[in-house]
Amino acid sequence: MKDIPANVWRTSLNEDDWNFLQIQNDEWPQCLCSELWREKTQAEHNGNFPSELIYSWTHEDMRRASRLVDTVLGLNTGGDIVESMKRARLGKLEKPDWTPYISLRKKALWKPLPKKPPQDRTSWIALDWHGVYRHWGEEIEYAGTHIPAPSIMDGETEIVPFRIPWDWRDDEIIVVFAQWLKDNRPKGESGFYVHSWGEKTHWADDRPRIDEPPAMPKAKGGAGSYLRQVKKILKALAAWRLIQHYKGSHIKARAHPGALKYLGQTYYHASEWTDAKKTVQAALKQIPHIYAQAEDFALTKKK
What we know:
two-stranded antiparallel ribbon, mainly alpha, globular
């Protein structure tokens, strides 16, 4: 395989980085979430795990910060959770831990995981005015004074204005928003709009094309089917790390000690290793959805 990116696995690949057969207690979803995050992080840092201190907090810190009022500015800064917590000296700076999920669980002797409160999934898309102004104030001012207004993109995320008619029913708002998504997904296209009187107006989508990722397969067979899909992604991640370690040689990757037992009848052909890369890349783009599915599975399992 060609085009192997810079990666941390080339120089260091421990068994706990790839041999997910060691997982106990059906902790496949939790392991997948953790390992996808490790994969994403090292890929975004040129094949290294960053050592800079990171800011962390507890759910109680977040709840307290959301109620804070900035007495100096006279503004409610609860929307900007991180800023509020820093001002109130909540949370803490700590060294990031990039230890493999399996290694951490082995150290804990695979004791049952503690229950966690449901994640606030709105945090993936919700913004507050202070954060918007601080991060995109100049772009918003420019867009508001130029025609056509340029798009404001943050990677593959777009910052857009909305008005919410709270006197509508929720299901009515959802229908309208679904239509907006369908009509406004970035297409990266251009063309001419023909007016009723015959005049043509040139238009262009200044955003790169971003297709909707394929849907995660629905668990038709219940929890068992969902776990099979998670295991499939983990096996692809294992294969992708193995071939990165061997600089693209699928023959050496398959001959890695213990790999044959895990990979089984899969990954004999070069095309299958390419498929593994594609599977991992697709999963990395769906991390929020995968996290949500894992949380739903954990909550269902404990009922």
